[in-house]
Structure formats: C-alpha cells, structure tokens
Specification:
Layout lengths: L36 E3 L2 E4 L21 E3 L13 E7 L3 H10 L9 E7 L8 H8 L1 H4 L2 E5 L5 H9 L10 E6 L2 E3 L3 H10 L6 E9 L13 H6 L12 E2 L11 E5 L2 H5 L8 H11 L4 E12 L7 H27 L7 H32 L16 H20 L11
Parallel strand pairs: 4-5, 4-7, 5-6, 9-12
Antiparallel strand pairs: 1-2, 3-6, 7-11, 8-12, 9-11, 10-12
Helix pairs in contact: 9-11, 10-11
C-alpha cells in the first residue's frame, strides 16, 4: 500500500506535477530473480528477459524470471485478456480472499483475468487452496505467480516485464489485497478506458473502511493521515478530474493504465511510492491521466496501521521520496542555460533547503517532546493515557514529512526503502 500524493489543503504541496523531464533515479534499476515457472504441476523452467527499452540507456541487461502457477484461465491461451487485474500479496490470505470475492465471477467480463502475485519468501498460496476459498469457477480466472524478492515494485515488474508480460492485458489494473472494489468494478474499469481514448492513466475514488471493533483515534481521520498513512484518494464533485495540481498521481492501491504506457516508461521504480512515481514519469512523457469519481473502492485498513509510529515512518518515507523527485528536477534544471547560471541556482536552492531542514528538524523535535509529555484527546471526551493528542500527532507527522523532503534535497538520504 502506498500513499496518495494529494495533500491539499496543506502547506505541504510538492511542485512535482509540472516536470517536463520526469524522474530518472530508477532508470538503471535492475530486476530481481528467484522464481520458477509452473503451470498446474508441470515445471516449465525459467527464462531470462532481454534488456527492456526504458527512458535512458542501462548499464547492464535486465532479467526478470517469474513463476506462474494456475489452471487454464477463462481467457483462452490463444488470445491475451483485455483486462489484467494485478494483486500483490504477502502473508494476508484472508484479506486477499475477501478482495477476490468482491471481484465476483458474475461481475467479471469474459475478457478479464486476475493475476495474484504471492510475495512471500516461500510459496504460501496454491490454486487448490484458492479454489476451496472462492470456488472453482472463480479460481479458474486467476493466474497465481510466486515472486520471492520482497517489494511491490518488484512484483509489478515481474508481471508486466517478465514472462507474464507476453500475455498481459491491454489494460492493467493494480489493486491491493486489502481493497474492496464496488460491485461491477472490472466492467466499469474497462468501460472507462474505452470511453476515454485520449487518456492512458486512470484512478477512482477510495475511502477508508476501519477495522471492526477498533475505536478509531481522532488523528486518523485527519486528511494528512488519510492520504499518507491510509492511502485513500477522495475529492469533491462527480466530474472527471485531470491528474495534476494537488492530485499529481493516483493512490497506488487502486489505479489502472493502458499497456502502451510501459513502452515509454519501462519499469516501476524502486521504493514505497513506486506507483506514484511511475505515473508521474508517464505524465512527464506526455501520457494523460484522469480521475473518475464513479469508480470507487474501500480500503480495509489493517489494524497495525492505526498507530502513530507507523504514521511517522510513512510521513518520513514520503518526504524522502518527494525530496528525491525534487533532486531529479534540479539535475535537469542545472543543464538548462539561464541568466543566473545553473551553479548559482543550485547554490541558492541548497541554502534554502539547509535552512528549511534546520527549521523542520527543530519543529519535529519539539512536536516529539510535546507528544511524550501529553496524552489524551479522544472524541468521546474520556482521558486515555494510550491515545496521543491528535493535533500533536499531525504536527509531528507534517514536520517529519518536510524534514525528510529537505534531507533528500540535500542528498543526505538517497535510498528509499519500503515503508511499513
């Protein structure tokens, strides 16, 4: 699950939607192997893939072996499906089953399929087990892939650029294993693509579904927590919106795109916000994105995410990602001639970032100290020693996000890993 980059209304408004050169930090990223290919019970071996055309030359060939375990899908092997719904999962079988049941067979168009990527170190899912949980007819529409190297970005690359990529659909939809799509979601996705020929990237609205029996803390209902920690995308009105401005990219747990985007963008970049970076890169290369309010999903929030410390970790990771995007734009800008010269602009920006880093580090330290001294603030007015005051949680998260951004702008944190 990745955050939505729509953080308005807020002082935190990254100016990343207007880039014309995109982000090149991941251009030389390689692929991870470690999988086998199976169909039924017959081992089909592995095969290395040639280097894929990305947006810049790579220094070494890319290979992405991947494994497939599935019965014959409903779209026959003679023709590729039109819609492939990709779900990456790891150790959350019960949540995955709920999502698969929401994609009921009666709502699945004949030309659609589901690709489930088991990202556990050891294979945890089987076709027989899925058939027992969701029924034989529905399981027949599922291609099961095991890809051991950790990370959703690796799973997506294994599917779209590996052996499965030869038969992937013309439209590729990405869902997380804790999403509850609306009834008729697959047909609505296909219709949205067919009725909007000028767009290549698509996303719908998403809302939070809180864990049953868990009292929701007040800080968790703040828009910053909704976007950063719980990865939902919501806006007012029932009209389509163009991707850009305060909505530069979709939430990574619920979006879809045309296969032709892969021909220009290439691979999903490493890191926690891989889907957002992929879509930002696609938009920078001229692909149009649209937000469609009529297509909705609910995000079944996992109980372990409703934790201030997880919120803090995600805010810092998102700040690092935004800063790394900004560094890429600065590198492009240094190459452009100007009246002040690229070096002068670079020094001025570094000075501003250094001052901002000092400011936001101080604010984050003060917010952390305030949190350690003060507890309480539940909505029913009762005092709780275990629930922090919501305004202090939000203040610290905002400070962490900005601190991480300026750290990355100064080059202090260049590697972005997966957030909790």
């Amino acid at each position: 699950m990745t955050p939505c980059l729509a953080l308005a209304p807020s002082p935190v408004r990254p100016n990343i939607a207007s880039s014309t050169n995109g982000v090149s930090a991941w251009r030389n990223a390689g692929a991870d192997g470690g999988s086998t290919i199976k169909r039924g019970t017959v081992d089909m071996g592995t095969k290395a893939q040639p280097a894929l055309p990305i947006c810049a030359p790579v220094s070494a060939p890319i290979s992405a072996p991947v494994s497939v375990l599935a019965p014959d899908p409903a779209p026959s092997a003679a023709r590729a499906p039109v819609l492939s719904i990709v779900i990456a999962t790891a150790r959350r079988r019960a949540s995955l089953v709920r999502t698969l049941r929401d994609l009921a067979p009666a709502a699945m168009p004949a030309e659609a399929e589901i690709v489930v990527v088991d990202n556990s170190p050891e294979r945890e899912l089987s076709t027989d087990g899925l058939a027992a949980a969701i029924g034989d007819a529905h399981a027949a529409r599922v291609r099961l892939v095991h890809h051991a190297p950790r990370g959703k970005w690796r799973c997506l690359n294994a599917v779209v650029n590996g052996d499965v990529g030869d038969t992937i659909g013309d439209t590729i939809a990405v869902l997380d294993d804790d999403m509850a799509p609306m009834p008729g979601w697959p047909a609505a996705v296909l219709d949205s693509v067919r009725s909007r020929p000028d767009s290549d990237l698509f996303a719908g609205k998403s809302t939070v579904q809180w864990p049953a029996g868990l009292r929701t803390p007040e800080w968790a209902e703040h828009y910053l927590a909704q976007n950063v920690c719980f990865s939902v995308l919501h806006w007012e009105g029932e009209r389509d919106r163009e991707m850009g401005g305060i909505f530069p990219a979709p939430s990574g747990n619920h979006f879809w795109f045309r296969r032709r985007v892969l021909e220009t963008v290439g691979r999903f970049p490493p890191g926690w916000t891989t889907e957002a970076q992929f879509c930002l890169r696609a938009r920078a290369l001229g692909h149009r994105g649209v937000l469609i309010p009529q297509i909705t999903c609910r995000h079944r929030v996992q109980p372990e995410l409703v934790d201030p410390e997880v919120f803090m970790a995600r805010a810092l990771s998102l700040g690092h990602t935004l800063g790394r995007l900004g560094r890429a734009e600065q590198r492009d800008d240094r190459a452009r001639p100007g009246p002040a010269g690229g070096t002068a602009r670079t020094l001025a920006r570094r000075g501003k970032s250094a001052a901002a880093l000092a400011l936001w580090t101080l604010r984050e330290r003060r917010a952390r100290q305030a949190l350690s001294r003060s507890r309480g603030g539940s909505r029913d007015g009762s005092h709780s020693q275990d629930e922090p005051r919501p305004e202090l949680v939000i203040a610290r998260a905002r400070a962490r996000l900005q601190r991480g951004r300026h750290e990355a702008l100064l080059g202090r944190r260049r590697e972005i890993g997966d957030a909790p």
